Every structure is written in C-alpha cells, then in structure tokens.
Structure to design on (328 residues):
C-alpha cells in the first residue's frame, strides 16, 4: 500500500490530466471501493458498476480534493454517496433478485472463478440474511462502523451525518439485526 | 442474552473476514480507463475565469439595480412651474424619429434610444411624485 505522500503525488498528477497516474490510483483503490460497494449492495455486478461510476466521479471532481482529509476518506465519501443513491433507487424498484433466489440465479461461472463466485454468493447470503430489512441509512452507518470498523469522526465526514444520528442509526441497525437473528433461530 | 450477543459477534466477525474481491481487476481497471479517456475535463483555470467573470457580471447588475433604486427615488424636489404634466409621452418621442431612420438603426442604437426614453419618463415620473407630495404637504 502506498503512503500518503505517494498518493498525493498521484492525485496532483491526475489533476494535471495525467491518465497514467490516475490508472495507478485506480489499481490501488479499486479493491477498496469494490469491497465497500459489495458490502452495501450485496451484488457483484452492481458493485462493479459502482466502482466504475465512483472512479468517473473522482476523475471529474479530483480538482475539488484539497487534502484536508485523507484521499481514502474522500473516496469513501464518493463511494457511499453513489451506493446510497443506488440503494434508495433499488428500494423504490426492488431488483429481480432476493436472498431466496440468489442461489438459483447466481451465475457461478467456470474454472478458476468458481471458488471466488461461491465466496461472493456466501457473503451475499451471509449479509442479506440479517440486514435485508435495514433502511439505506442504517445499512450505510452499520457497514461503515461495524463492518469497515471506521471511527465515528471519519463516518461523520463520509456520511455528513451528525454523531447523534450515526449513533441512533447504528443502534437501530444492530437492534434490527439481533431481532432478525432471534426470528430466524429463536432457540438460540 | 449473552448467547445472542455472542452469535451477533460471530456473524459480524465472519462478515468482516470474508472480503469481497474483484474477479478480474485488470479488466475492470481497463473499463474505467476507457470511460475516463472519453470524458473531457475542463481545465480548472478556465472554470475559475468563468466563475470570476460571472461574479463580476452579477456584481455589475446588482450595482446598476442599486443605483436605480437609490438615486432615482431620491431625485431633488423641483418647483411647481418646472414640471409639465404629460410633457412628452414615449410614443410621441418615438414618433419624432423618422421611420426610415428607425429602420436603419442597429439593435444597439435602438436599445440606447429606448433606454433614453425610459430614463426621461422615469425622471418625469419622479418630478410628478415630488410635486404631488409637495401639494399634499401644503394642503395639510
């Protein structure tokens, strides 16, 4: 992983329309953006689309990045905003897939990708099993705080929410997940 | 309760450890770069110059508006004799210019001409208002 100075150098070069420098930024950060997008949307294709959208947005607005926060935080912010909009859109028009139909519809692929595809499918099932009913905001806060393990100050910068709202949404999300766990396996 | 908490933590740990990875990162990077190359990005300097020009234009318009509101409303009071009611309505001034001359005028000349008429009308109106106010004061 690059240090802040190296990243800043790539950012500065990208600001001067250096596509090679930007390609380096893409290769360094695309895994991070994909990870967050997948955890939020629980769909591989959607996550890939989000990665593309996020980097296009970054390229267009890289001049606005002023190094007052870490580049990764700024990138998280753009990723979260893009995924949050997508989550809300999907909520209005539910997608064709659901947690029950994933195993049937998921294209596993062949050869070397089988293991990876299964891992994505498992993860999707694992997350959606208890978090499917969370609101987009609750899902966002829960993912950033409990899964990505970011501190509150960083979540405040990324989401633009106040610490109180973050606390409230996180409390509601955790409560809902626990309730769901209890509903699915009441014996435990 | 403790069991539930433990189960929640176990689930969370499993989600954290199971990192989603891009199947074909090179292909995805390539797609991103193809999109980016197609996007023209305005140089920041041009954007800044445009912003400054817009700001100056906005200030100029605001200044003109303030000038209109503040200075015309406080036109110096005039004596009764100097004011002629319906002295020269705009139609009369317009008619005073020959038709051939009007058709020969450029848009800019027409704008200047109409602005002059409007300005004169405004002055006449101010004088009338002052006169009426003065008359009202005297009657009281």
């Amino acid at each position: 992983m690059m240090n802040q100075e190296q990243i800043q150098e790539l950012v500065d070069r990208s600001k001067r329309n250096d596509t090679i420098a930007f390609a380096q930024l893409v290769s360094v950060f695309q895994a991070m953006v994909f990870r967050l997008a997948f955890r939020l949307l629980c769909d591989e294709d959607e996550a890939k689309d989000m990665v593309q959208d996020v980097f296009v947005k970054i390229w267009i607005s890289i001049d606005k990045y002023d190094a007052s926060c870490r580049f990764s935080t700024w990138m998280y912010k753009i990723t979260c905003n893009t995924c949050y909009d997508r989550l809300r859109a999907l909520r209005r028009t539910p997608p064709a897939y659901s947690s029950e139909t994933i195993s049937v519809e998921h294209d596993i692929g062949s050869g070397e990708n089988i293991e990876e595809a299964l891992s994505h499918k498992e993860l999707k099932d694992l997350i959606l099993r208890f978090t499917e009913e969370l609101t987009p905001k609750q899902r966002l806060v829960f993912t950033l705080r409990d899964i990505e393990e970011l501190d509150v100050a960083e979540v405040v910068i990324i989401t633009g929410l106040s610490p109180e709202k973050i606390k409230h949404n996180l409390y509601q999300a955790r409560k809902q997940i626990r309730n769901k766990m209890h509903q699915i396996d009441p014996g435990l | 309760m403790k069991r539930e908490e433990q189960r929640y933590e176990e689930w969370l740990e499993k989600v954290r450890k199971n990192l989603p990875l891009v199947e074909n990162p090179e292909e995805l990077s390539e797609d991103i770069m193809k999109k980016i190359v197609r996007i023209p990005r305005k140089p920041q300097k041009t954007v800044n110059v445009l912003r400054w020009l817009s700001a100056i234009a906005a200030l100029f318009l605001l200044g003109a508006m303030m000038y209109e509101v503040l200075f015309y409303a406080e036109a110096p009071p005039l004596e009764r004799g100097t004011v002629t009611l319906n002295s020269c309505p705009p139609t009369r001034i317009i008619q005073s210019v020959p038709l051939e001359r009007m058709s020969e005028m450029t848009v800019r000349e027409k704008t200047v001409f109409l602005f002059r008429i409007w300005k004169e009308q405004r002055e006449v109106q101010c004088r009338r208002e002052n006169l009426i106010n003065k008359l009202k004061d005297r009657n009281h």
Observations:
- Residues 19-41 of chain A form the longest helix (23 residues).
- Confidence is low (pLDDT under 50) at residues 97-115 of chain A.
